[in-house]
Amino acid sequence: MKVAVVKEDEPGERRVALVPETIPKVVAAGAEVLVESGAGEAAWFPDSTYAAAGATIVSGPELYDQADVILTVTRPGLGAVSRLRAGQAVFGLLAPLVHPELAQALADQGVTAVSLDGLPRTLSRAQPMDALSSQANVAGYKAVLVAAETYGRFFPLLITAAGTARPARLLVLGAGVAGLQAIGTARRLGAVVSGYDVRPATKTEVESVGATFIELTSVGSAAGEGGYARQLTDEERRAQQDELTGHIARHDIVITTAQVPGRRPPLLVTEDALKAMGPGSVLVDMGASVLGGNVAGSEPGQTIVTDQGVTIVGAGNLPASVPTAASNAYSRNVSAVLLHMVRDGTLAVDLDDEIQAGVVITHGGKVVQQATAALLQPTSEGGADVDGTGN
Ligand code: NAD
């Protein structure tokens, strides 16, 4: 079995799917590892380090020609899909709930697609495979650095001969993996930190990393399945937005991380909340996406300054901006999924296995993962419900 590591082609993507340290483990499972020349360069892993770890450096066309399994961090572009052939497998964070058309294209090509974001994350044996957590952790850390870089004052309380600077007041909305890392990082920089989430279980987690938990009186628990939040009703959403506005106005920096799997991210910071913030305030919207974000008007990868002097940073691909740490973690995750699926030196797809039932998206020419397949079913109005809004 030939396992190949591609050079990512998405603009700004600096991560690589396998780092040299992981190669001996994959080789020990009976695979030969091919690495596209330059694949690790942007994460500071030159070709020579892969060759020294036992991999063969190849060109892009050689890789697609020879590989049985192709490892990516994100997903092959639709152009690359046409280079794949039936029987090949692709591993990545394919986001099939956001890009169901890619899943369909891979199925049509006869490619087996394995997406790490489908992992049943509550299984303890799946934890080493949890790329969503490892990358969210990197992103949460980096979001705070982005906020600190943008903010015009200090984070910590500083008492100097030139005067006393009060500490920054920072609010984290959404206290999952990224949010908790953001809270911890902001605390280490000396900010006074508060956190909020719709899942009540997060209260103790927020407090355990040294922040104050904000409880809203107008919205109850919105804990959903598998440790995730459910989507709020329109009424709950409006009540939440209204009550959050007062809290947001009392903070200098707001980092938002709220996501609902496969759905448009919830809007937490409205236009009114933005108007209530003082000049020099900073928001970093980690929920910013093409479907909309947690902050009104945010755009992924763009920084906007409002008329009131509030800076809104629409986070783009934050893990890619910490490429070595993010690649090290992802490499462990993707290799753990791969080795879980290898029997006697070849890939053995078994959809009765709980982990594989989550991560295998396409196989044998079909979209086999239920959530993605459901999304590709025409709705009663005639179109696929791609953004989960019912529109
Ligand atoms: P996520 O990225 O899907 O969402 C981030 C946070 O946003 C979540 O905490 C969610 O509750 C919150 N959120 C969603 N809608 C919101 C709203 N309207 N208002 C405020 N907050 C809102 O989540 P995640 O970080 O990937 O993980 C979610 C949970 O799953 C966490 O508790 C995490 O610990 C848990 N998890 C468990 C395991 C495990 O058991 N092994 C592994 C990974 C994650």
The portion of residues forming beta strands comes to 15-25%
Helix content: 25-40%
- Return the average pLDDT rounded to an integer: 94
Radius of gyration, in angstroms, nearest whole number? 22 Å
Main beta-sheet annotation = 8 strands, mixed
Polypeptide structure, described:
- It is a single chain.
- The chain has 391 residues and is α/β, with parallel strands linked by helices.
- Strands 3-2-1-4-5-6-18-19 form an eight-stranded mixed sheet. Strands 11-10-9-12-13-15-14 form a seven-stranded mixed sheet, covered by helices on one side. A two-stranded antiparallel sheet has the order 7-8.
- The longest helix has 20 residues, at 131-150.
- The chain contains 13 helices and 19 strands.
- The structure holds nicotinamide-adenine-dinucleotide.
- Nicotinamide-adenine-dinucleotide is lined by residues 121-122, 127, 130, 132-133, 136, 173-179, 197-199, 202, 227-229, 232, 257-261, 266, 268.
Task: Summarize the helices and strands and which ones pair or pack.
Layout: E1 2-5, H1 23-28, E2 32-36, H2 47-52, E3 56-58, H3 60-66, E4 69-71, H4 78-81, E5 89-92, H5 100-108, E6 112-115, H6 131-150, E7 158-160, E8 163-165, E9 169-173, H7 177-188, E10 192-196, H8 202-208, E11 212-213, H9 234-249, E12 253-256, H10 271-276, E13 282-285, E14 303-305, E15 311-314, H11 323-341, E16 342-343, E17 346-347, H12 354-359, E18 360-363, E19 366-367, H13 370-376
Parallel strand pairs: 1-2, 1-4, 2-3, 4-5, 5-6, 9-10, 9-12, 10-11, 12-13, 13-15
Antiparallel strand pairs: 6-18, 7-8, 14-15, 16-17, 18-19
Helix pairs in contact: 5-13, 6-7, 6-11
